[in-house]
């Protein structure tokens, strides 16, 4: 007999932060055996709603029911007791521990006399891995795993608590296409076993492939609840942004290359383990062009960007920004030479989460004498921050809010506001639209194109092939720390670039 009572019901959920109502009377129901997508722009209330479900925040009004029974979720442990698990966009793993140790951290399996039962923990991880086709080694150190494998560890950690409802926040944001396919196979196994899945995603094509139903939030309110079979990507996009959208894909024009602005010669860089990942790499980016770096994550892109930005000292080689040698020097040298850096991980490299939005934005403008010397003038600082918040559409209650309170997309836009507003000569962007919605993504892309057309040299590193293909004037493909291919002229297909990314011949 088909179950009629939803696995999860959220009724009238409201959450306020001071004068800001982040979630306003939202209803959501999820059934056993389905993938339910939760969509909306950055700041629409998706993560806040799920944080209320998982007990990370307490709603100001509303009710949560599990299989028809009202429950109080006053913390993550309570959520797990009610069968609710959550895999966050930013993983919460301890790199030095094994997979099994991470899975059972905080709820370890014990033997008699208080001894840790490592064998039972490994066996449980192996059993869950086999049951759901997840495939991880219980004894592997997390620091040695790929990003996709680390995500599977997070999923197993939730499943080890016997959850019935699993929330995934932007699960494909850091995955390769192959890892995404593997995740989808895992999700299909979940729903076949009777679990419910809530999927937060900005990738509408993925939602249409994997989800059964969808709920759309806009400005904290539910504006639609539909069967995915009854809508298409275009209709979902209209529901998310609240206006008609053109159906054609955005085609950005080509730049006109000028003089070299970023020159890298014979670069050698080691990772944190001492392993050489960049092996004699050469590249040049000219004024007025966007050069895209395509590659599967872990092939040296992060180390390349960190060496250019001055965060990682190269073993050998030259890096020139607007004619100034910066290799091996501190980040300030590159910034003074005219470099802007949008890092891959905004939370650890891009911002100070416990500082106000104002400080995070203005810290990139401390050399601006108009802000006051020798002491900064608070009123001038605030006016500059307000101008940049408006220009870059950072949705925040007021400039004094801690950066930690921003959604992922708004935090990224805050980083872009700080970096791009300096009118740099060289822009190095790593995953600049990760976690951004449709409208914000187009906004960021337009910013990069406008800066290119004003003469900036842009190096774009992204694991999103459509982004590279849409924006780049030239495409370089990295594999095992080397440039293994270059595409100029006519834009190549995803298949042509993908072969080189996997180490195959063109």
TrEMBL record:
<dbReference type="InterPro" id="IPR003593">
    <property type="entry name" value="AAA+_ATPase"/>
</dbReference>
<feature type="domain" description="ABC transporter">
    <location>
        <begin position="262"/>
        <end position="505"/>
    </location>
</feature>
<protein>
    <submittedName>
        <fullName>ABC transporter ATP-binding protein</fullName>
    </submittedName>
</protein>
<dbReference type="GO" id="GO:0005524">
    <property type="term" value="F:ATP binding"/>
</dbReference>
<keyword id="KW-0547">Nucleotide-binding</keyword>
<dbReference type="Pfam" id="PF00005">
    <property type="entry name" value="ABC_tran"/>
</dbReference>
<dbReference type="InterPro" id="IPR050107">
    <property type="entry name" value="ABC_carbohydrate_import_ATPase"/>
</dbReference>
<keyword id="KW-0067">ATP-binding</keyword>
<feature type="domain" description="ABC transporter">
    <location>
        <begin position="8"/>
        <end position="244"/>
    </location>
</feature>
<dbReference type="InterPro" id="IPR003439">
    <property type="entry name" value="ABC_transporter-like_ATP-bd"/>
</dbReference>
<dbReference type="InterPro" id="IPR017871">
    <property type="entry name" value="ABC_transporter-like_CS"/>
</dbReference>
<dbReference type="InterPro" id="IPR027417">
    <property type="entry name" value="P-loop_NTPase"/>
</dbReference>
């Amino acid at each position: 007999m088909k179950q009629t009572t939803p696995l999860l019901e959220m009724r009238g959920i409201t959450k306020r932060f001071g004068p800001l109502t982040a979630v306003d009377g939202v209803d959501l129901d999820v059934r056993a055996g389905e993938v339910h997508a939760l969509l909306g722009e950055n700041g629409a209330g998706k993560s806040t709603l799920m944080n209320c479900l998982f007990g990370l925040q307490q709603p100001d009004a509303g009710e949560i029911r599990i299989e028809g029974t009202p429950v109080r979720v006053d913390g993550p442990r309570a959520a797990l007791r009610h069968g609710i698990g959550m895999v966050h966009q930013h993983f919460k793993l301890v790199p030095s521990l094994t997979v099994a140790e991470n899975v059972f951290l905080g709820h370890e399996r014990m033997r008699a006399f208080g001894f840790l039962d490592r064998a039972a923990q490994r066996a449980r991880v192996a059993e869950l891995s086999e049951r759901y086709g997840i495939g991880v080694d219980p004894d592997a150190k997390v620091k040695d795993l790929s990003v996709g494998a680390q995500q599977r560890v997070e999923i197993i950690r939730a499943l080890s608590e016997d959850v019935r409802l699993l929330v995934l926040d932007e699960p494909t944001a850091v995955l390769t296409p192959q890892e995404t396919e593997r995740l989808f196979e895992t999700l299909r196994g979940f729903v076949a076993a009777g679990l419910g899945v809530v999927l937060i995603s900005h990738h509408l094509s993925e939602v249409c492939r994997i989800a059964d139903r969808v709920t759309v939030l806009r400005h904290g309110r539910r504006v639609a609840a539909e069967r995915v079979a009854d809508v298409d990507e275009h209709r979902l996009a209209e529901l998310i942004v609240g206006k008609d959208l053109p159906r054609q894909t955005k085609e950005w024009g080509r730049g006109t290359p000028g003089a070299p602005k970023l020159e890298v010669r014979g670069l050698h860089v080691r990772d944190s383990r001492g392993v050489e990942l960049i092996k004699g790499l050469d590249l040049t980016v000219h004024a007025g062009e966007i050069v895209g770096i395509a590659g599967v994550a872990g092939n040296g892109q992060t180390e390349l960007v960190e060496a250019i930005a001055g965060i990682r000292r190269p073993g050998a080689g030259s890096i020139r920004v607007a004619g100034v040698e910066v290799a091996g020097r501190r980040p300030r040298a590159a910034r003074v030479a005219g470099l802007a850096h949008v890092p891959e991980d905004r939370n650890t490299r891009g911002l100070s989460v416990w500082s106000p939005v104002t400080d995070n934005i203005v810290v990139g403008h401390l050399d601006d004498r108009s802000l006051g010397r020798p002491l900064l003038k608070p009123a001038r600082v605030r006016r500059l921050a307000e101008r940049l918040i408006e220009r870059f559409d950072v949705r925040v209650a007021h400039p004094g809010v801690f950066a930690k309170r921003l959604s992922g997309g708004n935090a990224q836009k805050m980083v872009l506001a700080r970096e791009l507003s300096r009118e740099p000569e060289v822009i190095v962007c790593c995953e600049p639209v990760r976690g951004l919605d449709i409208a914000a993504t187009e906004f960021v892309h337009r910013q990069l194109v406008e800066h290119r057309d004003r003469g900036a040299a842009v190096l774009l590193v992204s694991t999103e092939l459509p982004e590279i293909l849409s924006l780049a004037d030239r495409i370089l493909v990295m594999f095992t720390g080397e440039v293994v291919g270059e595409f100029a002229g006519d834009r190549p297909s995803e298949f042509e670039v993908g072969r080189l990314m996997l180490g195959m011949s063109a």
